[in-house]
Amino acid sequence: MSKIFITGGAGFIGSHLTDLYLTNGYEVVALDDFSTGRESNIAGAMKNPRYRMIRGDVRDEALVESLVSECDLVMHLAARIGLQVVIESPLETLRSNGRGTEVVLQSAAANKKRIIIASTSEVYGLSTKIPSSESGPVAFGSPAVGRWSYACSKVYDEFLALALFREGGLPATVVRLFNTVGARQSGRYGMVLPRLVGQALSNEPLTVYGDGTQTRCFCSVHEVVHALRALAENPASIGEVINLGNPQEIRIIDLAKRVIEVTQSKSTITYREFAQVYGEGFEEIMRRVPDIAKAKRLIGFDPRRSLDDTIREVAEQQQGAASAVSPGR
Length: 329
Prior knowledge:
Blueprint: E1 3-7, H1 12-23, E2 27-32, E3 51-55, H2 61-69, E4 73-76, H3 83-88, H4 90-110, E5 114-120, H5 148-168, E6 172-177, E7 180-181, H6 192-201, E8 206-209, E9 215-217, E10 219-220, H7 221-232, E11 241-244, E12 249-251, H8 252-263, E13 269-272, H9 274-278, H10 293-299, H11 307-325
Parallel strand pairs: 1-2, 1-4, 2-3, 4-5, 5-6, 6-11, 7-10, 8-13
Antiparallel strand pairs: 9-12
Helix pairs in contact: 1-7, 2-4, 4-5, 6-8, 6-11, 8-11
């Protein structure tokens, strides 16, 4: 595999994956519509002669076909993400995620290309089985609740990828990502860690939704992109659904406290009801923990990067971005 095609290549994970491949001598072709991706994420990559960015939509069949046909590996990361975005526009979430993945998968199948499909821990939804295993049920809520449109679209992506594997031999792997965090991630779309760090750096009150007792597991983007590359290179992962995440839980209230301590902020903590943020009828998931036994068996996946280090990384990136916008300050 010498040439990699990354959809969502200007996004948070896509840009880090790009950097990993470029650093290791690969050619990278990226596609992004820049709805949530940012040019600043790929500023370094744009200076590399082995990199090419195409501005476009994954639903553009002719464009995707041409890009898939010239590459050896497809990394499909493009998606509408973030609770705020999903809740505000469930119809576009379904259309973009579902149809976009259809187009990418059909092109990969037609050209017999190796493909990794990024899915999400959101598909485990309201399941009470903790930790969540790939063999367990998906259990998202009522279609009357907007947040579940994202999970629905990603489950469809998974079914389609695995059907093409079983019936057509497509060398596909589905990866369910659990709260990947790090520099370049934006808090604008409901991502909790960069939002809290931004508030802490401004010495503003850190806003915790609900009572803060809900837990999440945060995994460094650096560990995730190395795992994605390893899975792509391991034939035993073909036809599999694989969790990637750090199984270490932390309550959101404790995350806020860690952010204040690590950034040495003067911030306090305030609380907002979920309904105030996301509207009436919002359903929160109180625990989300990955079972990573399969990833450990296949590629030795064992995330070790500390959350404090990631908080520092996010803070440094946000401070650098602020300095670039206001160089005289």
